[in-house]
Amino acid sequence: MVTRLYTHPVYLEHITPSGHPERPDRLRAIERVLDDEAFSALDRVEAPPGDEATILYAHPQGHLAHVRAAIPESGMTRIDADTVASPKSWQAALTAIGAANAAVDDVFEGRADNVFVASRPPGHHAEKTTAMGFCLFNNAAIAARHAQKKHGAERVAIVDWDVHHGNGTQDIFWDDASVLYCSTHQMPLYPGTGAKDETGAGNIVNAPLSPNTGSDLFREAFSSRVLPALDAFAPDLVIVSAGFDAHHRDPLAEINLEEDDFDWATGKLMERAARHANGRLVSLLEGGYDLHGLAFSVAAHVGRLMKG
């Protein structure tokens, strides 16, 4: 079992204001925990630069131009109340896309069994035409389209266990039955979307969780809604929008998961990837804002990916 890890120093240069939850220290915490000897077999590769043209797989030219125009020459600028850009944000976002697409190439071309991409800024709140929720471009959506365009994938599943609903991914694939989007998330909570009756073209499966939900109800929702949808869809590729802010320590939400829950969910997705997609699974970092909870949840997730 070969598990590849992509990251890049430029991700640390996407600067946010003091006190902002989506900060460079998130990746430093992940780097420290993955430096442990237990992860010595990880295939560590520097993320390649992204191809700007692939942004257009999920966003129109106008959105690309709007984000590029918002990048400041110095200091920081706010795209919305939550979403900030600094001089290296464009390069960081493009390299996050590059890593996501390279991860797709790796699992289709046999260089890795699965891949974890530790990048920022995250992506799942970025709608077709709107940067929001710390996200500039939708990395998971672009990677799904890349799998279809380059590798002929007929069906791609995106499973999002971030505690916030991935409104952007849902928006992009709302009427596209070739992409299954499944999400577990706290509701009510930002961004306010993700009700069970939001089903798109029958390809959207939302499993909202009430505040203070713990492991048992999370696993029941995953088992009763997400996993059957995956089996019915039989994807050629599984992409995970891997946010770790459903951890009980996270300051932005009220779901009480443990590291073991991410290990368990990872294993269940690997089983489906093995059953339907020749094991192909790509995991992209989304949220997770308590550094301890984030680091050790990522360790559980990556450790499970490595075990096969």
Contiguous low-pLDDT stretches (5 residues minimum) are none
- Shape field: globular
How are strands sequenced across the largest beta sheet?
A: 2-1-5-10-9-6-7-8
SS summary, helix count: 8
Strand content: 15-25%
Q: What is the terminal separation in angstroms?
A: 6 Å
| Elements, N to C (H/E) | EHEHEEHEHEHEEHEHEH
According to DSSP, the number of beta strands is 10
Structural class: alpha/beta
The biggest beta sheet is recorded as: 8 strands, parallel
> What integer is the average pLDDT?
98
Overall description:
- Strand 1, helix 1 (about 25-35) and strand 2 (about 45) form a beta-alpha-beta unit.
- The mean pLDDT is about 100.
- With about 300 residues, the chain is α/β, with parallel strands linked by helices.
- It starts with a strand and ends with a helix.
- Helix 1 crosses helix 8 and helix 3 (about 90-110) crosses helix 4 (about 140-150).
- The chain is about 35% helix and about 15% strand.
- It has eight helices and ten strands.
- It is globular.
- The protein has an eight-stranded parallel β-sheet, with helices on both faces.
- The chain has helices at about 25-35, 60-70, 90-110, 140-150, 165-170, 215-235, 260-275, 290-305; strands spanning about 5, 45, 75-80, 85, 115, 155-160, 180-185, 205-210, 235-240, 280-285.
